Every structure is written in C-alpha cells, then in structure tokens.
Amino acid sequence: MKKTMSAVIARRDRRVAGPGRSSWILFAALAMVLALAPMVLNQFNIGLLAKFLCYSMVAIGLGLLWGRGGVLSLGQGVFFGLGGYIMAMHMQLADASANGGSGVPEFMSLYGNGHVPGWWLPFRSGVVTLIAIPVVPMLVAWALGAAVFKRRVKGAYFSILSQALVAAFALLLIGAQTSTGGSNGLSDFTGFFGYVLNDPVNQRSLYYLVLIVVLVMLLATGLLMYSRFGEVLLAVRDTEERVRFLGYDPASIKTAAFVYAALLASIGGALFVPVAGIISPSDIGVTPSIIFLLGVALGGRSTFLGPVLGSLIVSIAQNSLSSAFPSFWSYLEGALFIVVIALLPGGVATLVPSIRRWRRRVSGAPGARGGSRASQTDAVPEASAGELVSR
Amino acid sequence: MHDHTSSRRRTLLPFMTAVAALGLVVSGCGSQVSTASGGSASASVKSCVDTSGSKIKIGFINSLSGTMAISEKTVRDSLDMAADEINKSGGVLGKQLDVQAADGASDPNTFAQKADQLIRQNCVAAVFGGWTSASRKAMKPVFEKDNSLLYYPVQYEGMESSPNIYYTGAAPNQQIVPALDWMKSKGFKKLFLVGSDYVFPRTANKIIQAYAKANGMTVVDEQYVPLGGTDFTTIVNKLKDSGADAVFNTLNGDSNVAFFRQFASMGFNSTTMPTISVSIAEQEIPGVGLDNLKGQYTAWDYYQTLDTEQNKKFVSDFKARYGQDRVTSDPMEAAYVSLYLWKAAVEKANSFDVDKVKANSDGISFDAPEGKVTVDGENHHVYKTPRIGQVNSAGLIDTIWQTPSPLKPDPYLKDYDWAKGLS
Q1: Where is the composition biased (Low complexity) (chain A) (predicted)?
Q2: How far apart are CA B62 and CA A136, in angstroms?
C-alpha cells in the first residue's frame, strides 16, 4: 500500500519525463525501416505491410486504454468497423457514380430493392465521410463510456460488455444484408478519393499515408502517456478509489481514454478499407477484437512501442505461419496469449528489464526493484497475472 | 530533465518531416479515376507466370482452419488427387503441376489476401478453390485487377459472372429451380423456408418467393438463424403451426444438426414433412445424423452413387487414396472437374496465358463423374445435370429424379419470366 502511494507521488514529480532515450532510438529506427521498406519490398508486400500497420493503429489505442488505463476492451472491432464501413460506404457510392454509373452499389440491386437507403446518402460526400470517421466512433465511445464508467462498471464486467457489443454489431451487419452486404461485406473498390486504387504509384502513396498516420499516432500517444492526463490515467488504473478521493473523476478519465482508443481504431479501420480492398463482419467480430489484444499483450501493453511492435509481429507471424501450419497457428496463438499473460504480463518489451531485475535479485544486490531508468519509465511496474484478470 | 526531453523532441521534428518528405518524393502522383479508362487497369497488369521450366505453378485456396475447414478440406483432397492424376499422365502441355497451397482460414479478408499472394508472389497460372459466397466475393476483385483465373467449385446463389472466374458448381437454374420444379410436380403447395443468415440462403429464398408466386405455391414462412446458430425451438414450433407441405432448407453446417434433431423431436419425419436441402451432401450426413435424415431429399448435380464409369473410377481412386470410410460429394467432384477443364482449355489454347485460355474455354467439355460437362464461354458457368436425391439407409444419396440432359447455365435466370425482377 505504502509503496503504491509513494510510487504515485514519485511519478507525479517526473510528469514531464517522456519515453526513455532507448525508446526514441527504437522509434527512429522503426520509422526509418518502415519508411525505407518500399524500396526493398515488392508491390504485394507493401500492401500487406500497410494492412498490418492499420491493425497496429488499433493496438496503439489499446496500449493507452488497457496498458495505462487498465480498461480491457474486447470490443475494439466495433470502432474499427465503424471507421471501415463509413469509408467503405463512401467508396462504394463514389465507385457507383463514377463514369456515369447509376449511383447504386451493385449489391443493393442484387440483394435489396435497388435503392440506396437514406442513412447511406450523407456518405456520398467525401467531406462528410472524413468528418464522420473520427466523430461517429468517438460519440459512440463517449456515450458508452459515460453510461458504463459513471455507473462504476469495471474489470471483467466491462470486458464482457464490450465483447457482447462487438458480437451484436457483427450480427447486425450480417442481418442487414440489403444495406450492408451481409456476411459478404463491402468490397470491389476501384477508386479512393478520385485516385485509382489499382495503380502501383497510388498504392505506394497509400502506404506512406498509412505510415505517417501511424507515426503521428505513436508520437501523440507517447506524449499523452507522459502528460498530466497520462499520469492520472495510470493512477486510476492502480488505485481508482484514491484518485476519486483526490478530487478527480475516474469515470471521465477512463471515458477519455476509451474515446481516444476508439478514434485510433476507427482511423485504422478507415485506412484498412482502401488498403485491403474489403471490409466484412469477420474483420470486426469477436476473434479479430481478441487478436488486436494479443499483439498489445505480447508487445507490452503499458510501454511506448510495445503495442505497435507486438501487433506487427503477430500479423507477420500469422501470415507466414498460417500458410505453413494452418490449424497449428490457432493453437500457437492461444498458447502465446496464455504464456504472455501468465509469465510475462508486461510483454516482450519488458523482457530485458525483468531479466535484469531477476539477475540482480539472484545476485542479491540492493535496490533490485526498479533500479534502472528504463524499467521505471518505459515499463511501469506491471500487474500480476491475478490482478490482470480481476481488473 | 525537462530541457533534456524537449531538445530530443526538437531533433525529432526534422526527422519526421524527412520521413514525410521522403514518402512524398518516392510516391509521386498516380493516376486518377477520371484520367484512367476502364480497361487499362487489367491491361497494364503484367503476368509473372514462369512458363520456361518443366513445371507450371497453380494455386489451391481452401479453408484449412476455421469453421469452414471441415467442408473445404474435402475439396482440397480431391484437388490434390486431380493434380496428381494429371501429373502422372504427363502434366499440362508437358509441364508438371507445381501446387502452391494457401489457407483461406474461413475469412473473406484472408481469402483476398492469399489469392493476391498466389497470383503476384507465387506467380501461379490459375487458382482453384473458395467455398462461401463471401470468400468468392472477396476474391473476385483480386482476380479481376490481377487478370488471373479462379475456378470456383461450389453451387451458389448466382447473379454473378466475372470474366476472371469459372464457376463449376451449379447455377441457381441447375439446383434451386429444378428442386422447385420437382416439388411442384409432387404437389407441394405450401413451403416453409429455413436458412442460415447469409447471402446464399437470402438470395435463394428471394428466388423461391418469386417462383412460388408465379407457380401457384405459397411461402408460409421464411426463417433465418445466424450462421452456426443452434436454437430451433421457436422455428420448429412455427413450422408445426404453419400448415406447410414441405420445407426448403438452406441451412449451413452445424445448424443442420440442431434443426433436424429438433425436427425429429417434434415428431416430424420425411413422410410427415418432406424437406429438401441444398447444402447437405454425403460429407455432411454423418454429422447431422443418418437417423434424422433418412428418406429426406437433397438437390445437387452429383451423388457418390451415380452409375457412370468415370464416377466408379473417381470414387474408388478417392477411397484408395484417402481411406475406405471417405465419401465423395458434389463440391468435391466440381473441384476435381475444374482442374481438368482448365487443363483442356490450356491445351486447346496451347498457352498458359490467361486471355488465351479464356478465349479458348467456350465449349470445352470433359467426361466428368457426373456426366458430360461443358463450359459456357459467355457466362463462364458449365452445363450440368440437376438431380434430386433421397438419403438412403447407408448414408448415401440415391438419385430419384434428374433432367434428361445437361442444362445450360443461367446464373441471372434470364430465361425465366417470373425471375425478371431479381437481377
């Protein structure tokens, strides 16, 4: 108890501190590698990498929400899907009216009555679409967060609620086949805001657009983590009651983090559509929402770069291993999740500091806990496996 | 500490700008929708297929993991068998087939990605596979933009015809419409529709509604469960009160088990409530339970029990290769046939070039286990013989009705007046 309190105070004193030097070097290296990747990769792999980067946007938001805020959302697919479907609706309508088309997406005349439903119409406008992509998911997240966190629903209850939400959202999309394409989803896009998608030059531009968005998100999230807001968020995670006593409203703080994570997920979903060329309910259901978490947990959920690295590793591994060992991959994925949660709750990013700590403890040196700067600022001491579940 | 961090932040800003600038310089400006003409996209794609060696690469894409794996693995088995047969008999244009295998993981997005990978990374000459409509719809734009070939082996809801896909399963006029014709001839007037909630059942039921309206039949109810749903209490109760003569079943996979169990527990059987299923083949019968299905009806173009020379060989080869307990089904046969149809088209074209293969596909035929199938060059479907079957006590399906000759495929049901408003 005493230790946590002093830890909170100690962190407040260091609130202007950002991620450590090693993290910035790693960030610069990551940015450089990703920026130069198109020089060595072929066109197909550039597209694949862009797709993985879109997933990692969800992971960055989850890092703040789960790692720093302790809010385990199993339903980020909802926001990924909102952004994705909004973008997809716009692209479908734009394609349908391009080159003197009827303005009605093909699937609507196949499965529906051949009329564009009223709620689709605003998305004919590119401006409305670009506004809706951040605004709609943020409003949804805000309404949900306000309703749930104010009632002090937390821990496993919130997780279950978010999972139920994403399952319901996927079912809703499947059921409304005439206006959402059902289980087929929306696909077959030719243009993206006036640019031909199937053009190598445009595809590379799209990759750089995605990359810049990811880097901006990383910077923003990194700064947010070490801002006053980030400190309070961390305090809410560790001792919510105490924060309330100090005069803060934990519900608003958690809602803000939830809204931020929703924003990132939505942008990820919106960029995913032109990159992957399809969005369907199976991209946003329960399983994808859990896989988003796997990357975050693997990389280190409370660290600066852990979520994005973990997410990229999981995507790349999934792509290469699932071809070689189709059914084996699902087991490996599950096993990986268990191992990380049980043995390395801080993720791979905390592997080095934890080994260092362990070695110091073994050698019996004093001050074994949190000796180095890196282990303190980059990896905020993590919850045990038990705590993780109870939260 | 404060100064330290902010100075680091300052050095980072030019770095970020450099990354952004690099991106802009490298990427430049691509073509815009208004400046590109429709056909240029596919014409500009350069195929990377290597035809110089003694081998030619082809791709198989099926779900080997996820919910569809149980069905799609059987298709992969028969594709593998067809590839081996072709290789043993000298290959295609003297080249051995080099199969590149991919797992679609029961996920449309994965299907699209892996198909793209097969075409652009592995440089395959043609791809075989896919099962669900969602997987096909996801792959369609990929094959069109890369100008490659997909052979899709499963009966489906129709209303589609892509220049880059050959559909070797039944079009709706080769499965759904014949099933309805048969039901009409049996005097069934009131139909109860039950299906999984996705594209195939919903489109099939739209076709059934239009048919019923024009043929003096009524649809008393139309019910859906989510894919994989197992709660049929309400639906079977509704069926009991509906006064229906027969059920048209478009349920998929596991839902059939729950449906027929509930169905039997309410005292229904094949005499009191005949049910015609379009997604239950030999492969699915043991899973659903033979006791629940015995005497019920199915609509397909192929059954394991067909009495043709080609089928006897196909079945015995398949059993010899994979085990005596294995069965063969319509999609497996259609997949097997698809590889031979591609081979025949390539040999006629004397080239692996996609455009040449397409140009030479019209009228290509093959003596398949189901009888002679012929490719329709116009809509890329095949002439097939619709058959109504009845589940026998051995868990196989006997043909009880079939059309005298193979039917011309009509994916948009253009030749039917009642179907005018559908496509």
Answers
A1: 363-375
A2: 37
